[in-house]
Q: What sequence folds into this?
């Protein structure tokens, strides 16, 4: 089975401080070889900053309500316009220290990306993709 993929470049902002907003480029990726996950690569001035992999369901659910616990949380803005999606990314840099980055992007842009992933692999059919990939490996 041939792997299919979807990539979407979305303008993002790192909310470093209430008065400081840093523009970033986010590249969301989806691969049929890993149908339960999405990947987000962050860039500043075309230099890679970090890569996060998390559940596609978390992103889909976060478009409508707060979703996620732990390292990745996603939620929509409460304001009507512009519709914004927030992502909180956390990671431990040591046992004692925990860092958290708050990002935001256009909710409609994230929705378009999610809709394309759903068109490629509808929710509930992810296992079929995994089974086909496993069968291809074993044959």
A:
């Amino acid at each position: 089975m041939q792997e299919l993929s979807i990539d979407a470049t979305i303008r993002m902002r790192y909310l470093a401080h209430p008065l400081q907003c840093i523009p970033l480029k986010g590249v969301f990726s989806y691969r049929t070889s890993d149908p339960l996950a999405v990947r987000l690569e962050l860039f500043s001035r075309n230099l890679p900053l970090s890569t996060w992999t998390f559940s596609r369901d978390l992103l889909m659910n976060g478009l409508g309500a707060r979703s996620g616990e732990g390292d990745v949380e996603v939620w929509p803005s409460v304001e009507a316009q512009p519709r914004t999606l927030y992502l909180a990314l956390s990671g431990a840099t040591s046992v004692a220290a925990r860092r958290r980055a708050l990002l935001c992007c256009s909710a409609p842009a994230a929705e378009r990306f999610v809709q394309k992933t759903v068109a490629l692999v509808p929710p509930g059919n992810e296992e079929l993709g995994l089974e086909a990939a496993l069968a291809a490996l074993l044959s």
Notes: The chain is about 25% helix and 45% strand. The helical segments are 56-62, 107-120, 126-138. Residues 77 and 84 are 5 Å apart (CA to CA).
